[in-house]
Write a structure and sequence with these properties.
Six copies of one chain form a homohexamer. Chain A folds into two domains: 98 residues, OB fold (Dihydrolipoamide Acetyltransferase, E2P); 182 residues, no CATH class. The first copy, chain A, is 41% helix and 19% strand. The first copy, chain A, has ten helices and seven strands. Chains in contact: A-B, A-C, A-E, A-F, B-C, B-D, B-F, C-D, C-E, D-E, D-F, E-F. At the A-F interface, helix 4, helix 9 and helix 10 of A face helix 4, helix 9 and helix 10 of F. Chains A, B, C, D, E, F: Keywords: Hydrolase. Chains A, B, C, D, E, F: One of its GO terms (biological process) is rRNA 3'-end processing. Chains A, B, C, D, E, F: One of its GO terms (molecular function) is hydrolase activity.
Chain lengths: 318, 318, 318, 318, 318, 318
């Protein structure tokens, strides 16, 4: 079975893949015929595919997010690789394949990521801060097992959000040791809460975001998280005007740094400044690491990366 | 008694004024002497003033926000009018003057403004929306009697915030009649809630903002109002995920229109688009009206107005 | 006959439509065949269509802006609805259909819109201002009966420009009552003149702009209107340096508010500030109203609207 | 007599100078005393000065734009050179000094500049274009003898505007020879007309702009020139819609290149593109030349120049 | 033989052309067939073409940058002209055609351009400056015979870079005569060096840039040229800290004027300001001249030109 | 002896301080008297001071960067604390005070910082990279003992530049462990080289930058470092086109990330992306840490920090 990121033009391809997207279209021949316009994916990447002779039965059999076995050939169309599918059938139980094997995932098991996050909460010495963080995490814990951190920009895969949190917690720990004046309770809390409402902002399955939710568009994850902190404080009986509540809301509200990037206020505490830069460092480095990992080793340049000033990354030969 | 906005250079000035600001400074003569650097104000405007021979007693007698009787003369210093105070004494009860006579105010009595706002809430047909609006207004009702709408940009005087709301409600009523597809419940609610947290964002006395509160800086009035709506829904037992709560939060969060102007989301409902433009229309027209009213009639041009692309307004002679 | 904005995929479609655009293209089959690439429209909206077997006779029979009767079926192509035409014939007199029934129009009859505009001119108390406004309106009066206000952004339909003026006059009347310091002569004149040269800036038929004129590109409607005021004053024998002429030119020149939006000067009279905000309020609200009206009721979201920060509008369910 | 741009700290200064600005102010000693805050200028530059003991007679004797003989000393105040005046008297006829000797001027006599401009008009082969240019030049010919091209940015001295035109005409001639596809009639006309309304936009005396006129602020020199071309065509009986009129208006309207720099349309003819770049080249080079000429030769760096990205110019030693 | 910029729809086309680009693609018929997607060019312009029946032999015969004789017909596809090739064969020696006849070229022979550039270097009076310029020119002299100045924006053809230099040298000579304070050694050197590293920044053949080099992307032509000046000074034994070296590096580094346009420092010497404006004037005028020359004379408007604010240029009829 | 950052209004002050700036000015009394306008500093901060009766002897005795013993009193002038000096004398050897005790310094000894940097170079496994880094460090090693990293923005004190490097090396080590795909040789080299030319860009003494050098303004530290790498490769006999040289130049050139921040190219290698974000994280956190450390503990807010969106930092009370 060929991994998608290893395909070259004219390669035969046989194996199991996920129908990430599937649309029924018509050729402009006379008479027009139905065909499937498909986005195939596996754990290594994704590729456009066509299945030209979709029968009436086929149209009842294949749907997006289904696992299939295909046979086909890769060729170049408009300067990009594409697969022409010659045979296709649904995967069956007997095939012993599982959906989650066909999507990109964080390199650490979700259960271990959650464990690390819970450990970080447990290590917060201030009880109120820890309780508010727990309240918010509980709202999305099930989704934290699989949600990506974003639709496209970074950590856009299975459990990408939890992975982003865990990596940021590592940086946060380092930074608190390097600069002891930082309040590690606030910094840990900020790292865990800053994107905590993303699972409600986006609709995702298997680490793939299909769209933003209505609430995601009208309120946004930043204000949602701020509202959740308010809710937590009310439910837990804490003072809404305390510096703890204020400090947590400020961390969440300011973490995008600028108004044009979505933050209604700018960082004005030491931990808020740290949070923004840790978030930025981790997201950008992950973009680089993922782009290099999913680009065939024979390519010198990755594709353009929107989050990095739309630049490609080069592999220096040293 | 001369109104401040009627003074010309070399005018004698005798009468009661408010010490809006007062600072003790030292001349750079040898030896240095203490003097008062003062901002005098009355209901028509404000002017810088100096009192050169501040005695030890004077320093115990005069404080910011105190009413005084002064005698002095206006003269030009660095191209701006200034008052040199020759005599000064505190106002006494016998003088029969009242602080509120010496600050600029909305042209309608606060009690009548509040009455109009309460009437608008009563006319909201949806019970839940009305109850949430009432909950938020109750949090600041006392302050709504006197708070300005902003530190400097517009409606920066006694009861300016309530006046801004009432004028916007008038425009909103007109617009709902002109365009019946608009939901008038949401529009009224949005108008009343959009700046409702400003009294907690700013510290003001007699319509004069001295500074922003810590919460105002770290959270901001937009996110505060969003949190209040969450709190209202929890306290009143409403569904936090209903379209009513969502719609109200969206109105508040989006009313500055753009991220760089402080809104974390952009208007995406008909009423949110209307709210932003009504807010903008009323604020800008009030800037124009106030600038013309406080500029001496003999002047062709008002001062530059920061909120109007930093342009001055000209009086055409027609 | 199915209205275009009511079509769903797989719907049969039979009825009269306007060929808003028609281009002859060739398939890339061997040998290539001619087909028609068409934009169909009716009063409710527009939709892309293909007619695959265009004969030599067909190519002599069908032209853009012709009325036709078609039979076909709607289907989805690249995520957008499209019509495959199976039969097509020109409409004949016997069909009793009229071009103007097949384009979107303002909801008020053009003759009534013109009447309202003339009434507004008649209500201008200053004779010179009224005469200058009349002079400019006379230049385009015939076109005012049907011109849209823009190519795409807002009021882009039959008599859209006159409708925009009339709605703005209503807001202007309200505002002059709310804020009596405004000069209603100038405000009315500004509303009528601000886009008065648009019919010379754009080439339009039946409310549909096909392109900008050479003069529209090289001079622009703002400077054209300013030149017309100069011309009016010369022809009518008025003083070119009077505050009336100056005030009118300023209204026209400044109504886009900022240089990057096309205004060489920024608003510096009370009426110019009002004009810009009335224009903006009316245009934006119309975008919202039209987007909601032309989006199928079953859709929660309208398409993205460029003039509203490229956001879609959501229908809250309350 | 010491030239202002040759002064060093502690230099004695005796001679005739112009009171470019004079304001009566008061010291903050007790009692305060009147003094003159003065801007002295001569043909080489300008410098701030103080005259500390202004008597009642002095206040009746000295006014802005008057010629005086002074005695004083230069010293450094807040890192800038300043003159302390010890003696001052008005210049008399007997002194044989003339105002125009005390202001900076273009290096060519105004009469010769005008002559060159008239020659350029005479060389325009198209009669209509030449006549329109003449009509506009006639409106300001007297002012063209002495007006600066701007308040501060470039050519801000006696006859600076005419000098700017003449230099641009030289570049234009060169460019038409280098690139014969350019229409030299249009280019000459554009060069002469592009800033032709500046004398009506600004109020200036002896090459010094004191302020912008009301018309300058409300209409601006670009739209004024466009209106003048309309007026010229009407008065001369030319077709307002001809490509000649259109081409001239386009040149004037587009010469600032971008909306944010004041042009309502962008250059869209070959000559309009050329005009903008010739204007820019000449203005920038003159800023450099003037900054170097008015900075003492002992200084390596000129002051910061706003029009050159706020950079200073360095004298390389080669 | 028809020149490409003279083609109209339905024209027969027979003659020799260059295969500027050639890609093998597949039709989406069943079974799919191979075809060539081609960009044809000659000295007058370029045009898209299709060759629908590519045999196995064809695929071994035709490659990008090969000369061919074709027969075909022009037709409109998606509003743009395209050629359907019916016959194609490689050009042979017997045909007597040469590659260089089929690409656009500067209007002056490369050898003459180089001669002019060498003459300019010889006229630099300062020996060290002349030697450094020579050193850098020697690095690319062979490429200077044919390299374009840019991938698309301006002078994007055979010997375009040398042509740009020569034209700028002419403007520089004129400007040094008009403003004698300019140092003509520095200005000539700056003109020759400013884009001298472009041949190493881009990969080009026959005046056509196919891509940027790795070094071009990671270092850029501006820093490369600065490094070359360092290298020249070391190799020639000059002082790295002299004002000559400094002045040359400054010219190169600042010639894009602003950081966002790629210059790490802004112009701060007279010659650096001049260099930027001469570069800009020449590049923009060439864009205009080339756009007009390659647009069929029957067209009023050229295509949109990205480097001119994305505006098209209009041919006024005078 | 009172530390400057502990002063309050009306405090007596006696002790040794550094005259960071000293200017002789004149009072505007009659007759004017000479006084010293002084910036005092010690290791904790700096404060403005005046010495009103500067005698002729004083003017020969006191100069900038001299150590003095003063007696005086702190008072508030224009809302800022200022010192009025009553007695002043130069420090003598007998006083046993040393200049370096009176300037702010990095919290680690310079010799230890240099030691750490040399250790990092020694740990670079690639010999060529290590040698190039050494070559560049050797150019400024003496200055690295005391130079600040910037004039004002961050690390603006004694040995601030070396301290910045060392802290970044710590973050770099952490990041290479967290993300092993990073090339630690390049990252270490990039950290050490990115600001290596700053000591030649700025003129500084005791950690205080007085101005930028001519080379600093005309070339800038980024291009200087790039040139040094070229020089190193030539002197050491390495291939100028190797990926090692290219990679190092790219790191230096791109580390400001955007053109408008001074980088002619954007980061396009993994290590270049990392370098920019490590630089940013360390600089911003240091701004926060230093602002909190130098603001009296009784103050809730630090002053506004230009490098942090001009926001102040708040001390939460938790």
């Amino acid at each position: 079975m060929t991994l998608i990121n290893q395909l070259s033009s004219q390669d035969e391809i046989v194996g199991f893949y996920l129908l990430k997207e599937l649309e029924i279209k018509q050729t402009n021949s006379t008479p027009p015929k139905d065909y499937f316009d498909i986005m195939l994916c596996d754990s290594s990447g994704q590729i456009s595919a066509k299945y030209w002779d979709a029968s009436a039965t086929d149209k009842e059999t294949f749907f997006p997010m289904g696992l299939v076995k295909i046979q086909g050939v890769a060729h170049t169309y408009r300067e990009r690789l594409q697969v022409k599918i010659t045979k296709i059938r649904p995967a069956t139980e007997a095939d012993g394949v599982s959906l989650t094997d066909f999507v990109r995932s964080a390199p650490i098991r979700p259960i271990d990521l959650i464990h690390t996050i819970q450990g970080a909460i447990a290590s917060i010495s201030d009880e109120e801060i820890a309780a508010i963080v727990s309240f918010c995490v509980d709202k999305v814990e099930e989704k934290l097992m699989h949600y990506p951190a974003a639709k496209m920009h970074h950590h856009d895969y299975f459990a990408g959000l939890a992975y982003h949190m865990v990596r940021m917690l590592e940086i946060g720990d380092f930074l608190c040791k390097q600069r002891p004046f930082l309040n590690s309770d606030f910094l840990k809390a900020g790292i865990i809460l800053h994107d905590i409402a993303k699972p409600e902002e986006m609709v995702a399955q298997l680490g793939i975001v299909s769209e933003y939710s209505v609430k995601g568009k009208l309120v946004g994850h930043i204000s949602m998280a701020s509202n959740w902190i308010t809710e937590a404080a009310i439910r837990l009986g804490y003072d809404l005007d305390s510096h703890k509540v204020l400090g947590l809301q400020h961390l969440v509200l300011s973490h995008h740094n600028l108004g044009e990037w979505g933050s209604p206020v700018q960082p004005q505490t030491a931990e808020a400044v740290a949070l923004h830069h840790i978030d930025s460092l981790d997201a950008k480095m992950q973009m680089v690491e993922d782009a290099l990992a999913t680009t065939p080793v024979t390519e010198e340049w990755t594709p353009f990366i929107r989050g990095l000033e739309n630049k490609a990354i080069y592999r220096l030969k040293v």
